[in-house]
Specification:
single chain; 335 residues; alpha/beta; Nucleotidyltransferase, domain 5; 2 domains; 6-stranded mixed beta sheet; two-stranded antiparallel sheet; 53% helix
Length: 335
Amino acid sequence: MTFLAVNLHASGMSRLRLKAEASASSSSRFFRICPLMYVCYVDESGTPEIPGTTSHYVLAGISIPVWHWKTCERDISALKRKYTLQNAEIHAGWILRKYREQSQIQNFESLQYSDRIYQVEKIRNSELLRLQKNAKGSAFKQLKKGYRLTKDFIHLSLTERQQFIVELAQKIESWGFARIFGECIDKLHFNPQIAAATVDEQAFEQLVSRFQHYLSAMNSTEQHPNKSYGLLVHDNNETVAKKHTVMMRRFHVKGTLWTDIDSIIETPLFVNSELTGLIQIADLCSYAIRRYLENKEEELFLRIFARADRRDGRVVGLRHFTDNTCQCHICKSHR
């Protein structure tokens, strides 16, 4: 036994304890000398085209400090396991739809998951064969797409799917370290000529500016002596990726209309949402905001809205672009 080992043994300090203390010390030193990083996960809800198929277009992001990333991933995974959705991608719009086939199955809610899946797929396959036989190509393709995007959820009843999404929104609300940023555009009041931009371009510039303001505010406080930086992670879309990359390069050189960009690094990273849990959370955030603005659905929205970035009690992270008579929660919180 070496001299060091003898002394450690005599003092009652185990190697595990030493390792833990060394790790804590190293972590403490790291955060004293290194910049702080915030990752903002971004997704959209609605169509940016005018008129498109929705009255609003929402681009929303949820910012997470990197040292809380694992907490978020664990929370998401635990909820997915609870509802047997381990390998499913969260698409709130598809999850919360009524699946007509389930209403055709007698005592659906009393069936085991495996039986539910079998019965639903039996009806779906029959319908696809019928459309294919009748040469209804467009209807066949549309229905097949819907089936593909909902196949991971057919073992859950509508009530169970709704509860899953509510619990997910509750979890987001509990993340006190998270902040929501976004632009919600009422396309009836949007004039591309005056804006000199498209709907989605304005939304992206607003989101980038609000995230930058948040980081700047963090950098101006004594509680955060280290410089804070941010990174945007966006759901992958080839067309959007090219446009937003070009825009972000311009912002780094010239700034946005409202601010210089000195705290957001790089251009956005575009990732596969199927493999990235927090992009799926951004999907839920943008969906909940749009459904509130279009249909006054508050249950999900109010939980998401609780995490909107605020300064002195006033919401600054989220904006509703509409006429000045709007009495929604977002507009009232700005006044």
